[in-house]
From TrEMBL, chain A:
GO terms for biological process: aerobic electron transport chain; ATP synthesis coupled electron transport; electron transport coupled proton transport. This is Quinol oxidase subunit 4. It comes from the Bacteria. The keyword Transmembrane applies. Pfam families: COX4_pro. It comes from Guptibacillus hwajinpoensis. It catalyses: 2 a quinol + O2 = 2 a quinone + 2 H2O. Catalyzes quinol oxidation with the concomitant reduction of oxygen to water. Belongs to the cytochrome c oxidase bacterial subunit 4 family. Its EC number is 1.10.3.-. It is an enzyme of class 1 (oxidoreductase).
Length: 107, 647
């Protein structure tokens, strides 16, 4: 079964790879420009860079990792959402736990 | 470094351990040489990628670690029996409770469960091996070498002594300057590689290697619980890996992640440790739940009550397990909002767990119960675990926790959930699946002796500790005064501990006795059980199934047996050659290099760790260029096997 899939994906020109590759380079350069050459405030720069990073992550998943193409795409999306949930719980939770109430201490 | 700093000296107990380790090693080497078993050991066991053999090795390692952790426990009980005892000094006591906790959780409970998962899960889903057999061997050997690295600490260099939680700053370089803490960091790091690989391996195995006819919602409950456990492992263990790496940097290379000075954040260690640590307790309890489900269903002779509720409650537990970690350090004082939030999520977990308890009770209801040894363990689990759970809800109340925190109340609570949950399950599962592993049952009479003595001892040991905690006895103290009035309950606890030790010894004797005298299995289904692993013949052939079995619903093997009784006979299909993976010596060699690298890092001998890591890399390269695609089991061999079995 996996052999068939491979031959299919190799039979035509990999346009999606090429577009994804181009977009990734473009987004990276854009992020660099925003970071080094633009006049936005630091806060805005951070927001823009994070948004660009998220877009690029989505491109990676769609163009290179074929998230929608397999018959188990629902499971894949579920897994990613669960991973995002854990990541947010861990990171946001840690920041909340480690900073909340700390103003009560002499730090 | 001088030799007397390298070896731990000065304590008669340690000298005793030195002698016994040396004698055991010499004895083992002598026996292997005398009986000419070296080649057999290498070709049959050390290089194996067979999930059944790896599972057995996991379980042997876990029983050895149970012995080691149990001896630690007995030493602690000996010290605490009477006030002002001088049996152990403070530092030695600290080392012992640290190694007891670490070994019991990481090197006993986890490998015992993973061992049973290894043996049982592929058989339950009708698979011939796991998805990545080579990786499975790497998992075992990295776990084993990590465990050995941790265990040699008490004779070479000194044990860690900052508790199994290793809170900084106590575990930091200033307050724990000895190499003991490094052993903890590196031992857990190396063993953690194995656990993470197991998580990935079994997730893929369960999702992709099931017989095509088995739907997700028809999987046996033990397989379901293993699947959820693997998901938790995959998401929780990276946190431990990172936390251990950061503390290793702090201790070995002078970074300041968790230090008191230079912007370090000591409480961040506790935070990261418990982000892993709380899911970890579900990693060790969910497979236990799965086992009890199988055993209760088998010996009540009923399909499991509330199958879907069981599955969904485990999914909810898996999600919630990542949202409760702060309840381990309410007293840090993060504030009312944080503590309230985590207090509520913690209490919420009791809901799906309660659902499971009722499901087991309803499975028992009107069942024709057979009181076999595995069933006895499962029945004792329910009331004991409820005691542990209810006191857990008491601890979950943040305001009240300020009273219970770090007292024996907590010690009693987590021993009640971990022993009556995980350890009972390990014993129940061992008795239940023993015939699948060793082709004979454990003796029932001795098994029941073990059960009654151990369960009585357990309750005698830990129930008084609730009251010791309420009377104010703090955990992790090496002694107490006569005026504290804690002696009577401590004496009771020690008596209970001794009974548990006796129960364990009877179990070990039972293994020997049954090996000698138990009748060998002929049917492969000694318990009249329900799931597919029991459809394999005795002994289980190394390729598990000559024909892939068919799964027609819950309790697939039970359905098969009903159909057979109704006279439906399966048509004889011709055998086909079966593709199996080749054995490989690479995993054990790679793990030995991990051990060398870890040992070098413990002592900051960087030449040694670099050599070890080069070795690891080299074995990876060798593996990458290994084009061995496995081999085919011939039809003749399969026919030969099938003739020998009566099924």
């Amino acid at each position: 079964m996996s052999n068939n899939e491979q031959t299919n994906s190799h039979s035509h020109f990999p346009w999606s790879h090429l577009i994804g590759f181009g977009l990734s380079i473009f987004l990276t350069l854009l992020a660099l420009w925003v970071g080094f050459a633009s006049d936005f405030s630091l806060r805005t720069i951070m927001i823009i860079v994070v948004i660009l990073a998220l877009i690029q992550a989505a491109i990676q998943l769609l163009m290179f990792m074929h998230i929608t193409e397999s018959d188990s795409s629902r499971i894949q999306v579920g897994t990613i959402l669960y991973a995002v949930f854990i990541a947010v719980a861990v990171v946001a939770g840690t920041i909340w736990v480690m900073s909340f109430g700390m103003h009560n201490m002499n730090m | 470094m001088k030799l007397d700093e390298f070896f731990v000296t000065g304590d008669p107990l340690i000298y005793g351990a030195d002698v016994s380790i040396a004698l055991t090693l010499i004895g083992a080497i002598f026996a292997l040489t005398y009986f000419k078993k070296w080649k057999w050991l290498w070709t049959e066991w050390l290089t194996t990628v067979d999930h059944k053999k790896l599972g057995i090795m996991y379980i042997i390692a876990a029983v050895l670690m149970l012995f080691r952790g149990g001896v630690d426990a007995m030493l602690m009980r000996a010290q605490l029996t009477v006030p002002d005892a001088g049996f152990l000094d403070a530092n030695h006591y600290n080392e012992i409770f640290t190694t007891h906790g670490t070994i019991m959780i990481i090197f006993m409970a986890m490998p015992f469960l993973i061992g049973l998962i290894n043996v049982v899960v592929p058989l339950q889903i009708g698979a011939r091996d796991v998805a990545y057999p080579f990786l499975n061997a790497v998992s075992f050997w990295t776990f084993f070498m990590g465990a050995m690295l941790f265990n040699i600490s008490f004779v070479i260099g000194g044990s860690p002594s900052a508790g199994w939680t290793s809170y900084v700053p106590l575990a930091g370089l200033e307050l724990s300057p000895s190499v003991g803490q490094n052993y903890y960091l590196l031992g857990l790091q190396i063993a953690g590689i194995g656990t993470l690989l197991t998580g990935i391996n079994f997730l893929v195995t369960i999702l992709k290697m099931r017989v095509p006819t088995m739907k997700l919602m028809h999987m046996p409950m033990f397989t379901w619980s293993s699947l959820i456990t693997m998901v938790i492992i995959i998401f929780a263990f990276p946190v431990l890996t990172v936390a251990l790496a950061l503390m290793t940097f702090d201790r070995l290379f002078g970074s300041h992640f968790f230090t008191m000075m230079d912007g370090g954040m000591p409480m961040l260690w506790a935070n990261l440790f418990w982000i892993w640590g709380h899911p970890e307790v579900y990693i060790v309890i969910l497979p236990a739940f799965g086992m009890f489900s199988e055993i209760i269903s088998t010996f009540a002779r009923k399909t499991l009550f509330g199958y879907k509720a069981m599955v969904y409650s485990m999914v909810v537990i898996a999600g919630l397990s990542f949202l409760v970690w702060v309840h381990h350090f309410f007293t840090m004082g993060a504030g009312g909002a944080v503590n309230s939030f985590f207090s509520i999520t913690t209490m919420l977990i009791a809901v799906p767990t309660g659902v499971k308890i009722f499901n087991w009770l309803f499975t028992l209801y009107k069942g024709r119960i057979r009181f076999t040894t595995p069933m006895l363990w499962s029945l004792a689990f329910i009331p004991n675990f409820v005691i542990g759970g209810v006191t857990g809800v008491m601890l979950a109340m943040a305001a009240a926790d300020y009273q219970y925190h770090n007292t024996y109340f907590l010690v009693a609570h987590f021993h009640y959930v971990l022993i009556s949950g995980t350890v009972y399950a390990c014993f129940a599962g061992l008795h239940f699946w023993y015939p699948k592993m060793f082709n004979h049952r454990l003796n029932e009479r001795l098994g029941k002796w073990t059960f009654w003595i151990f369960v009585a001892g357990f309750n005698l040991c830990f129930f008084p500790m609730y009251f010791l905690g309420l009377a104010g006895m703090p955990r992790r103290v090496y002694t107490y005064g006569a005026a504290d009035g804690w002696m009577n309950l401590n004496v009771l606890a020690t008596m209970g501990g001794v009974l548990m030790g006796i129960g364990f010894l009877i179990l070990v004797y039972n293994i020997y006795y049954s090996f000698r005298y138990s009748p060998r299995e002929t049917t492969g289904d000694p318990w009249d059980a329900r799931t597919l692993e029991w459809s394999t013949p005795a002994p289980v052939p190394h390729y598990n199934f000559a024909h892939l079995p068919e799964s027609k619903g819950h309790d697939a093997f039970w359905i098969m047996k009903q159909e057979r009784k109704q006279g439906k006979t399966q048509e004889k299909k011709p055998y086909k050659p079966i593709h199996m993976p080749s054995y490989s010596g690479v995993p054990i060699v790679m793990s030995v290099f991990f051990f060398i690298a870890g040992f070098g890092m413990v002592f900051s001998w960087h030449w040694m760790s670099i050599l070890g890591l080069i070795g690891v890399l080299a074995t990876m390269v060798i593996r990458s260029f290994d084009y061995d695609k496995g081999f085919y089991v011939s039809v003749e061999e399969i026919e030969e096997d099938q003739k020998r079995t009566t099924l």
